[in-house]
Each structure stands twice: as C-alpha cells, then as structure tokens.
Amino acid sequence: MQAVRTSDGVWRLVHSAGINVQNSSMQQSRTAAGGSAAVSAGNVRTAHGHAAREPAHGNGGGLRQHSTGTTQRHVAGSSRQQTGGDSEKRGSPAQACGLPPVNRYTLRELKISSILQNPRLRHEVVFEPKLEFRPNSSGQLAETKQRAAMQYWAEVEQQVRAVQTAPTARSVATVTMLVVELREILAEMIEDGPSADASLAAEVRERIDETCVRQQLQHGVFDAAQTVAFIAGLMRSLAQPQRHAAIARLSLYVQRGRLARALRGAFDVLEAIKIDAANSGIELYRDFMRATAVAFERSHFSISARRGSITLNDTTAWWQRALLDARARGLHVHGLDTVFLNVARDLVLDDSQSVPALFRMDDARIQTIRREAERLGVVGMVFLSFSQFLQLLARRGNKGIRIDHSSIAAECLQLIPEGCRVHWAESLGSRKPPRGDVSFSQLIDGLRALAERIFDRVMLPSEVAMLERTLLRAARHECPLREVVEDRVSQALCEQSDFLSRNRSHSETISSAASEPLRRSMLLFLAPPLAALAQRIYCVLAHHWLVYKPFYTSVSGSKSAKSESAALTDSVSAR
Questions:
Q1: How far apart are CA 102 and CA 37, in angstroms?
Q2: Degrees (nearest 5) of the Cα angle 324, 373, 449?
Q3: pLDDT-based confidence at 1, cuts 50/70/90?
Q4: What is the mean pLDDT of residues 506-518?
Q5: Cα separations (Å) of 52 from 183, 231, 233, 412, 483?
Q6: 435 vs 461, residue with greater confidence
Q7: Strand pairing category for 421-423 and 131-133
Q8: What per-residue confidence (pLDDT) applies to 399?
Q9: pTM assigned to the model
C-alpha cells in the first residue's frame, strides 16, 4: 500500500486490489485494472441497508424454482469453489479468471473485517477525523484503470452480441461468468450484512444456477430481463435510497437491448453499495480503532518482525546515530522520549535524509510535511521579493500608493496553495504546469494582477520583465534572501515543535519563541500554517513513539525502560 497526494491536495491510500482511501481533513493512495474506491471527508451514514428476505420467484433466465425440490445446493457451492478457490490462491484472480474490474475479490477489502485488520487504514484513522471510501476518478492510476475497464467491457459487448445471435463457447462462458460473479457478490454482501442471513445467501446461489444459465445461453432461451430484475431487487434491498435510481436503470438497459451495459452498471452499483456499507462500518468502529490503535500497531509490528517482513537495520542504525548525537548535545538527560521527539523532528524536516523503514506507515505523510515546509519558505521568499518590487515601483512614480502587506501575504498564500510547488524552470510560453505544481507563469500572472490592483493601472512589459527577474533571482538556492527565509522558517518550526514536545500539548497557537524569528523577517503571517504544520509533526512522532518505544529502548540498552510517559500517552489519547 502506498500514499500519494493528488493535484487537488487530497491524500489517497491505494490498496493492492485497486481500492483507494482518501481523506480531506488536511485538505489536506494499489492495483488491479479493476474497481476503485477513495476516502474523503463528508457525511457518513451509521447503518447499512438490510438484505431482502423475500426474493422474487421465477424459472427463467437461469433462475431455479426453489419450490420444485430439485435445487442442489452443491452446484452453487462447487461453482463458487471453481471460480474462486484456486485462483484466489494464485493471488491475481482478475487476470486468471477473466473477472470484471469490480469483482468479489476487489470488494472484499471493503468488508469491515478486512478494514479492522488493515494496518494502513487503521493507522490513517488515528490522524484523519474524517476518513471514508469513495470511487477513485482522478489521477494517473485512475486513468489507467479506466482505460483497462473500457477495453474489458468493449470485449464483453462483443461477447454479448455473439451470445444473442450465434452463441460460441467463449461468449457463453463470458456471460455465464459475469452473472455468476454478480450472484457471488450479492451472496457475500448478504452474508456480511447486518443480519448475516446465510439462508438467504444460499437461496440466491440456488436461484441463479450456473449450469442453468450456461445451458439457456447455449440454446438461446436465457431470460436476461428476469435475471436482471431479480438481481436488481436484491440490490435495492441492500442499497441506500440514493442508489435506487441507478438500480432502476438496469432493467431499462435490458429492455433496450443493452445487456452488456446492464451488467456493467450492476457491478458499478454493487461497488457503490459496498462502499456505502464500508463507510458506515468505519464510522461505527472509528472510536474503537482509535482507542486500540497503539496496541494493534504494536501487535502488527511484532508479527512482522518475527516473520522478517520488515527490515530494521536502517532504523537501528539511524537511532544509534541519533543517540550519539543526542548525548553530544546533552539531550539524553531529559529522557528517551525527548531525545526521540527532537531527533525524529530533525529527520522529518530534513529532506536530504531517507526515511527509516519503521516510519513506513508515515512515509507519505512525512514527504507531505517536508513539502509543506518547503512551500512556506517559498511563500515567504515570494512575499518579500514582491514587496521589494512594489516598493521600487512606488519610488519610481507612485509615491502616494499605500501598500497593504497583510493583503499581499494572504494573496501569496493563495497563489501557492498547500501541497504545491512553484515550477521555476517552466517556459514562460507554457500555461500548463506539471501535475501538482504551480507554474512560474501562473505565479507571475497572479502577482502582476495584484500589482495592477495596487497601482490601479496596467503593468508595463518592462515592469513585468523586472518582476520575473526579481523572483527568479530570489529563487536561486544561493540567494541570501532565500537562505534567510528558509532559515527563519526552519527555526520557527523547530521552536514550535519543541514547545509542543515540552508541554505534550496539541495547540495550533504559535509560541513566542517560534514567532520571534518570523517577526524579525516580516513573516509573521506564516505563523498559523506553521503552527498547524508543527502540530502535524508532533502528532505523527508522538504516536510513533508510543507504538515503537519498546523497540527503541531495547536498541538504546536503557536500563530504565519504563512504560510510556503518562503525559505523552494522555496527550495522544486525547486526540
């Protein structure tokens, strides 16, 4: 599993089955060609839809009459094993069995039992107050999966046309497999639902019989309308009301001769229903997952260490170097927790250091913290450079103009939003920035418009060129202005992080020690985002220490390895 940040500033966790988890509390992601789901903030229902207990009866379209007494439960069971058992052991059922992009295997990651055993998701719940699944429709991964899905369903369209005109072995097998896969997803959803109705799930498997479906397709007597109507009825009983319109369209597709579209729509709606249920489960168990996070992650780490699935050599070497440095700085007298919070803070803020393996759960979060620290430095540099540019213009003939530095600061923060970098090397002739970046031309356009509002006139081409030179000169790493700004931002972040560590607090109010370097550089407007960033750093490191303190104390060889600091435990638990 991996975490990535999209161009809109949204975090996504991407699971191996193509399920994404996204959060937007920061507002602030692996792969089958198949179904996807993300996690975003918003309203979350606390109850699932309930499974139907009285499915419609019928004998067409591969549906068995359970009243005839001829139903054989082992038929459905054997077909289920044949479809899923061996392929599931191979680890890539979608490729091995030709399953659709959304299938029972991709949707199993949305089961509440899977969620409760998912270390990455359990870890994310600690930091994100609003975390839920949603379909993933943006980013390169989503585009790749969408192209693969389009190719898959284009092939299904051809097979459906063949089975309706001149059935072949391949077309019959394809449609049979899709109908059976829908049956299995529905049956598993019923089994996993609030009522966990095993008898209803068994009845669904009996009513949609694989042998009957195949034989009817071969002889051209398959009643697609009745089969889809039966499936839609079950889906409606499982779905929340907002899904009913999409479910109703399935039968309309069949009436219009678009069976392939109805099948694809059924899989899409089932994914949406499963996502709704998963979000309800997350909300229901959120407090439990947060309260048991430290114990769960410790247990997961212990199991991983015993199995050898995590390499600790780099973490051990980093911690031993950190202890030597801490002793040289005199930090060791304050205890191992203080040592860790200080050296780990330096690790997080130093993008030249690689992240040790034990921080794997927070690797993407650390990269985001580093990126945000860099952004604050760039915003400060742009603000000071632009202010100097405005003062120069004012001295050249606009002496009566009043320059409002607070509004300029706010504008700079908006021009370079959270999670973005300025692409300084971009050609001025291009207007499309690389993904996730702010183009230099965009920045120049925004500052030019701001200057025109301030001076109430159109900027001359020579003045725009001067603005470009001013910013590019300041953006050079060897520029004294940039060095000063980066140093003051780093100093303020360290002071604020130390303040939070000493007080074991979760405050986004800037301390006096942290505000001083900002005030001296006219960068006090950076205090709110800087305090919020320091708070994020402290939350990550405090939780990490609670989980892995036994490991670090064993490496340090400390004879006074006590239980976690009560203050530290209380401060993290309070979140």
A1: 10
A2: 160
A3: very low
A4: 88
A5: 14, 11, 8, 56, 66
A6: 461
A7: unpaired
A8: 64
A9: 0.75
Q: Are 479 and 463 in contact (CB under 8 A)?
A: no
The C-alpha atoms of residue 336 and residue 485 are separated, in whole angstroms, by 32
For the chain, how many helices (H) and strands (E)? 24, 6
% of residues, the chain, pLDDT over 70: 77
Burial classification of residue 249, based on how many CB atoms lie within 10 Å of its CB (0-12 exposed, 13-18 middle, 19 or more buried): middle
Q: What is the pLDDT of residues 18-41, one digit of tens each?
A: 444 544 433 333 333 344 444 543
DSSP per-residue string spanning 203-238: HHHHHB-HHHHHHHHHTT---HHHHHHHHHHHHHHH
Q: What are phi and psi of 437, to 5 degrees?
A: -115, 160
Q: Does 499 have pLDDT greater than 80?
A: yes
How far is Cα 296 from Cα 177, in angstroms, rounded to an integer?
Answer: 39
Torsion of CA 4, 538, 512, 474, to 10 degrees: -30
Task: Please give the Cα distance from 400 to 231 (Å, whole number).
Answer: 75
Q: What amino acid occupies position 32? A: A
Alpha helices in 20-168 (DSSP H): 73-80, 86-90, 93-97, 104-107, 112-116, 119-127, 140-165
| Other beta carbons within 10 Å of 490 | 17
Residue 434: band (very low, low, confident or very high) from pLDDT cuts 50, 70, 90? low
Phi and psi based region of residue 54 (left: phi greater than 0; alpha: psi -120 to 50; beta: remaining): beta
* Residue 492 predicted with pLDDT over 60: yes
- Strands 11-14 and 437-439 come out as unpaired
- The CA distances from residue 412 to 33, 42, 280, 423, 447, in Å, are 40, 29, 40, 15, 8
Q: Of 109, 270, 51, whose CA–CA distance to 178 is shortest?
A: 270
Place of tokens 């067409």: 60
Return the half-sphere exposure (C-beta side, CA atoms, 13 A cut-off) of residue 250: 27
3-state SS, 160-180, equals HHHHHHCCCHHHHHHHHHHHH
C-alpha to C-alpha distance for 334 and 346, rounded to whole angstroms: 17
Q: What is the pLDDT of residues 103-139, one digit of tens each?
A: 999 999 899 889 999 999 999 999 988 888 887 777 7
